[in-house]
Amino acid sequence: MGAPAPASLADPVLVAIDGPAGSGKSSVSRAAAARLGFGILDTGAAYRALAWAALQTGADLDDEASMLALLDAWHYSITLLGAQRVEVELGGAPARHDVTAAIREHAVSGQVSRVSKHPEVRERLNAMFRRIVAESGLPGVVIEGRDITTVVAPNAPVRILMTASPEVRAQRRAGELAGMSQEQVLADIAARDAKDAQVVDFMHPAPGVRLVDTSDLDFEQSVEAVVGIVREVSTR
User: Fold this and answer.
1) Dihedral of CA 113/116/101/166: which sign?
2) How do residues 139-157 score in pLDDT, each as one tens digit?
3) pTM of the prediction?
4) Contacts by 110-113 with C-beta closer than 8 Å and gap 24+?
5) Residue 29, C-beta contacts closer than 8 angstroms, at least 6 positions apart
6) Which residues is 213 bridged to in the sheet?
7) Which residues have C-beta within 8 Å of that of residue 205, sequence separation ≥ 6?
8) If we measure between CA atoms, which residue out of 172, 153, 176 comes closest to residue 217?
9) How many whole angstroms separate alpha carbon 130 and alpha carbon 18?
10) How far apart are CA 143 and CA 232, in angstroms?
11) Which is it for strands 13-18 and 140-145: parallel, antiparallel or unpaired?
C-alpha cells in the first residue's frame, strides 16, 4: 500500500457521502461529482477488492490477523475520473488483476461485512482513502461509502447521509442483480443492514451531517439534491 506522500499545497474540497446499499449513493455520487468537476472515490470498492483477494488466497475473512497479513501483501488502485477501474496486486504475484467486474459479483458482495467488521482493517483502509484524496491533484473529490462522514472525513466541509426505505432499496438493487427476485434482494439487504449496524450507524445522521432521503426522489432529483448542498456550502 506504500508510504503516504505529502499532500498538495491546495487540498481538494471533500464531499463525504454515507449510506446503505441501494440508497443510490454510488450512482448519485458519481453523477454529482461529474457535474461538479470533482473526482469520485468509491470506498466500498476497496472492501470488495479485499474480500475478493481473501477468497482468491484462502485468507480467513473472520480472523483480523489473517486479513491484516493479506493487507500487507495487497496493492490496490482505483480511478477517480471517468469509468471506474479497480486493480489489485497480491504478494508473490506481480500481475495486476483487473477486478472491476469481479468485485460486483454476488459471491463477493456477501463477504464484504466480514471484512469491514475488523477495526484495524477499517483503520488502515481509512488511512489509504485519505491518502488517495490528498494525492489526487483534483479540485475536489466526492468520497462515498460507509463511516465516511463520521470517521474517514469527519471534518469535510460537506457531509451527507443518503438513505432510502428497505423496500425502495431492494427494488433498485433487484434491477442490478440478474437472477434475484426483489424478495430475495430485500432479505439480503435486511441481513446486510443487521451486520453493518454492528459496525456503524448509517441510518441516522451525526451532528452537522445533512440527510438526503431518496425514497421518493428519482435519479435526477437525487443528484440535484447533492449538488445543491455542495453549492450551498461552497457559497457561504
Assistant:
1) positive
2) 999 999 878 898 889 999 9
3) 0.83
4) 110/188, 111/51, 111/54, 111/55, 111/61, 112/44, 112/47, 112/48, 112/51, 113/192, 113/195, 113/196, 113/199
5) 17, 40, 42, 142, 144, 226
6) 163
7) 149, 161, 211
8) 172
9) 15
10) 18
11) parallel
